[in-house]
Fold this sequence. Notes:
Blueprint: E1 2-3, H1 12-19, H2 24-41, H3 45-49, E2 52-53, E3 57-61, H4 67-87, E4 93-101, H5 102-105, E5 106-108, E6 111-112, H6 115-126, E7 130-136, E8 139-141, E9 173-179, E10 185-191, H7 196-213, E11 219-224, H8 240-257, E12 263-266, H9 275-286, E13 293-296, H10 320-328, E14 334-338, H11 347-357, E15 362-365, H12 381-388, E16 406-407
Parallel strand pairs: 1-16, 2-16, 3-4, 3-15, 4-7, 7-11, 11-12, 12-13, 13-14, 14-15
Antiparallel strand pairs: 5-6, 8-10, 9-10
Amino acid sequence: MQRQCPIHSVSPVAYQERISSRGSILILWTLTLFFLNGMVFSKESDAADSCKKWFPGHYVYLYANTTNEWNRVKTIIDTASSTAKTNGTPQHFRGYVVHHLWRDLESREGVYDFSAIGQQLDKAESEGRKLKVFLDDRKFGEPGKEVPLPLPSYMLPPSEGGTDTDNTYQGGDYYVEQQRKRSDPLGIRYARFWVAPVAERYGALLKAFGEKYDNHPALAMVIQQETALLEGMFQTGWSKTGYLDGRKNIAMRASEAFPHTPFILLTNGGMGLSKDQTAEWFDDAHIGLYHHGFGAPNPQDEVKSVDVGLVPWKDDPSEPFGYAYDKFKDKVVISMQFQNSWDRYDPKTFIDHMVQEQHVNAIDWFPVTTLGGSHGAVFTIYDVINQIQTPGYLSYNATLPSDYTACGEPPLPHTNLRIQ
């Protein structure tokens, strides 16, 4: 159901100025009608206030927040537009995905600078495109090299150049190394969300950003990084209850911050919670109560072996996407990353799986030349474009989630195909 969101409403003052040249009688008559209609429209105001922007489709990552990288990705999306025009299909590529470190956005406690994101939002809007924004509480990097600190300096101890001398944030973050499938280790710094002040400050970041940009017409979604903690549960001060409380607090603050913009949590394993605690987080807070969306960092992470093939995650506390999917699919937004393929599948196999099996509404693609991997299925972002823009091909789930009322402009036309 499509309703006009408050973001796009015309104020009474603007409306009066628009008609003022038509004469005082017409103004009086119009204002009378406006007043009478207002009494009726007030019954709809609650529904309008709770509406969500709805921009399903495909997006492409920026590896860096630079003009050159924007232009490089713009060329890819422009190619998708040209392919759509040639094939006579709607343009299914919505826009861009950007990452911004928490540290870069909050220089001192409560002092925020979102100007870089604001410029990107305005640029996307000028192109008629949308922006998905990650507000990153963690940072990935190469072991042996210094991984950039994701948290503001006031949350870090003096040993890391911070100013938290009284240990309010208990270190703020922690560092681990992950040995991945391809035998290339990855260094990661994670926020300690089981420490209440850390979770509270991230919630404050969301609130400040939402107050400024929730109503921006180009802001499609706000995304929080993966749930995996790796060795978080072995850190000093770790608490399952504390982590659950911190995550529930963040979900609440996100609900307050983004009444009109879907907030997405990327879910993957290694959260350190029991099945009952995972259920409490999702059922009683993130999804069940606040209707936030969810997703995963890569559909390929679900593959148990190349012989088993692509299957939905099962109901297991170590694999929270499966729990959320089984219970909340088609009720809230599902947004999926596609970072790369480590096995032998082609673009169509992956897209069909994400849409038909996982009911994914939005897919984010990395703009790299080679998306294929070790089993010879090498394909490029341009192969992905050609598949997505094939006439009549269902490349994303365009059906509005049942928990949402859409506001703003209608979604891009897709086809008459829908998930069954």
